[in-house]
Amino acid sequence: MFQGASALSLDVKGRMSIPARHRDVLVSQTEGKVTITKHPEGCLLLFPRDQWEVFRNKIIALPMEAQWWRRIFLGNAADVEMDSGGRVLVPPELRASAGLDKELMLLGMASHFELWDAAMYALNEQAAMAKGMPETLKQFIF
Fold it and tell me: For residue 92, is pLDDT > 90?
């Protein structure tokens, strides 16, 4: 289970370093093999390869009316591997689609990660907080 936020930077080649606390799990779980794809909210999804296969099978099973979502998720998926330095190359097309330039936020989301442009993430988080908690969370005990 991945959780927590990490502030990261892209290097000049478009690579990001996976934080050590996640790197060890990714190496032992999938030999450092991950898949990156688009997310409809403007970030990227980064899956360990085994979790990508679970997600991919769910997308494949969607009805025909979701064909464009199949294209978005599967047609934009890129299989990448961590290098010996624990870095992952984020393909240029995916970097452009999510507006990733230099400063990033990597969020552990249990089975996968979200990768955001840091400024865009801050704006979205601020907007969500300003809206207040949804009804489903108002009954939640902290």
Answer: yes
Angle at 119 between CA 118 and CA 125, to 5 degrees: 90
**H runs (alpha helix) in the chain:** 20-30, 49-60, 67-75, 92-97, 118-131, 135-138
Where are the chain's structural domains?
2-125
Structure tokens at 62: 């969607």
pLDDT value at residue 5: 98
- Tokens 């970097």 label which residue? 95
Q: What is the mean pLDDT of residues 111-127?
A: 98
In the chain, count H helices and then E strands.
6, 8
Domain 2-125, what fold?
Chemotaxis protein chec (3.40.1550)
Q: What is the pLDDT at residue 130?
A: 97
User: At a CB cut-off of 8 Å and minimum separation 6, what does 26 contact?
Assistant: 18, 32, 34, 48, 82
